[in-house]
Amino acid sequence: MPIVVRNPIVEMNGDEMTRVIWGLVKERLVLPFLQVELVPFDLHVKVRDETDDQITVDAAQAIARYGVGVKCATITPNAERVREYGLKKQWPSPNGTIRAALDGTVFRKPILARNVLPMVRSWAKPIVVARHAYGDIYKNVELAIPGPGKAELLYTPDDGRAPTRQVVHTFDGPGVVMGMHNLDRSIRSFAKACIAYALSEKMDIWFAAKDTISKTYHARFRDIFQEEVDGHRGELDAAGVSYFYTLIDDAVARVMRHEGGILWACTNYDGDVMSDMIAAGFGSLGLMTSVLVSPSGVFEYEAAHGTVQKHYYRHLKGEATSTNSTATIFAWTGALARRGELDGTLEVVAFAHRLERAVLETIEAGTMTGDLARIAEPAPERAASTEEFVDAVAGRIK
Ligand code: NAP
Ligand code: MG
Questions:
Q1: If you measure from the C-alpha of residue 132 to the centroid of ligand 2, how many angstroms do you get, rounded to a whole number?
Q2: What are the pLDDT digits (tens) for 9-23?
Q3: From residue 19, how far is each of 191, 307, 340, 359, 369 by CA, in Å?
Q4: Does the CA dihedral 150-151-156-161 come out positive or negative?
Q5: Which ligand is nearest to the CA of 285?
Q6: Which pLDDT tens digit goes with each residue over 240-269?
Q7: Going by CA atoms, what residue is nearest to atom 10 of ligand 1?
Q8: Contacts of 78 (CB under 8 A, 6+ apart)
């Protein structure tokens, strides 16, 4: 008797090796055990190209409507990808489009297995990175400056008041200039999402920026965060959750000596970069999950890694691959557990936890893909193939 998932989950397929994994996970670990309605969106790069990226916009709207989504990694096309797939243009990052549509915050949490020790000896508990998912360089405008001239920032108020102008730089030769922005309301919902996450996980919050250099832009982040923390002081104190603000470079240095168990809130670019560093430090990108939380309480789950392009080319040549599906499986379990919580179906939540345990038990019993086999202690005799690992997990759920 399959377990019934009461309401639909938005399912977004993707590209390359993660698309291969997606099929395996869905067919062997999800569909045999659950009766679930999936609302499918194929975000394969060719489909995005054929629909002029409308499919991504539609997917984002569907996540907002249904409340829970699960997404496969997707190619963000660069010039090389445009040639490889014969695309009309360099379509924007689907994650960027979805984040912007939902105004969400991304939380990245490492998965800890007992036999995969973090590279950093002090890390005993997960370090969760929260990435502010709006604006900054991800919504920038850039100009190539061909030669001498003046670049300015110009703000023209809608209400007819006098414009404000500032010289960015007076160029004496070629260069580049960039304009970026953020919104008080987005920074505020970021802070709110971090506080909500920290309260539910009972994790201390760290936030860092570079407000000594950026006295208006970064300082705005610091101030809004502080306001939200002050506004939630009672709840934070009751839960024993502390808040710590410091400079980003100080935070980076402290994190390397910390035991973990903290929520590290980062501005958009810092979160992009630091989450990859933290993921690698905890073992493998294949052990990092990611969830986008919107201020309205919509959740989208995915693996934090990309499409694992190099493995895919090997797969296309017919060679055996050993790609870790753990983070992809945890994206599914995250979405299922959330769906079950929203629907009040405890058996769905229990299945999600059973699947997570099956994954960890498989790894801890010594069946793991190459990325973990290289760093696990004790080292397994051999690495499992992509498919063998999924089948070993399936064997444990049954
Ligand atoms: P990647 O897919 O994250 O892979 C980089 C390397 O990390 C791999 O070559 C592999 O190392 C290792 N790795 C990552 N995930 C792994 C897994 N599950 N199991 C085993 N090893 C894993 O990054 P990329 O190759 O730089 O990017 C490929 C494409 O992904 C790009 O087109 C990019 O746009 C896209 N991307 C998408 C997302 C997203 O949708 N969320 C995020 C990032 C990148 P070895 O080769 O050493 O085995
Ligand atoms: Mg990154």
A1: 13
A2: 999 999 999 999 999
A3: 33, 8, 25, 19, 17
A4: negative
A5: 1
A6: 999 999 999 999 999 999 999 999 999 999
A7: 308
A8: 90
